[in-house]
Amino acid sequence: xxxxxxxxxxxxxxxxxxxxxxxxxxxxxxxxxxxxxxxxxxxxxxxxxxxxxxxxxxxxxxxxxxxxxxxxxxxxxxxxxxxxxxxxxxxxxxxxxxxxxxxxxxxxxxxxxxxxxxxxxxxxxxxxxxxxxxxxxxxxxxxxxxxxxxxxxxxxxxxxxxxxxxxxxxxxxxxxxxxxxxxxxxxxxxxxxxxxxxxxxxxxxxxxxxxxxxxxxxxxxxxxxxxxxxxxxxxxxxxxx
Length: 241
Prior knowledge:
CATH architecture of the largest domain: 2-Layer Sandwich
Shape: globular
Number of domains: 2
CATH class of the largest domain: Alpha Beta
Largest sheet: 7 strands, mixed
Structural class: alpha+beta
Number of helices: 5
Helix content: 25-40%
Distance between the termini: 44 Å
CATH topology of the largest domain: BirA Bifunctional Protein, domain 2
Number of strands: 12
Low-confidence stretches: none
Radius of gyration: 17 Å
């Protein structure tokens, strides 16, 4: 059945994921929280996500029984962002495993998926897309970009969101039908981390090698410099090509 989202729009809030959690506590599902600006936006490992005016910040709140597979929701969101940007601008972007969208080696979007466990398990899939920012502060100016910087013109944020939700909805049906192989195939087609030489920093170690695959559990498969295979469940990836 097609998911129909109700949209809640805010000019400025702490974070769309936080607001989605508040709505989750009230028992709401299948809603989207959108903000023009976030004061406490965050990414993986609780890192700060600078959320200035011009970007598109939103979170999708879903009811989810099978929390073992929620990494696929991150993959679905990443694929949907790539498709939405292309449909809106014809700009081709790529996914950097597991949750970043980039172009010309600069970050365009980050995705954060979080569980909300309670009487009813829910999942929040949040995304921040740099769209109409003209510049970034010095800390991230060498690694971040926006659609405006890449295209030298403004892009309609509502159009991007509309395309995203349509694509996400299609893939979410596949997810609910447990068609994980189809989602993984799409992810691999849009992910350019595979085949790259990388340095991976996990919470405890650093590994260097070549990415040879993404497995059915959404983990990165790394061929180390000594020839051994290493499964990376979570970590920061730096391309060293």
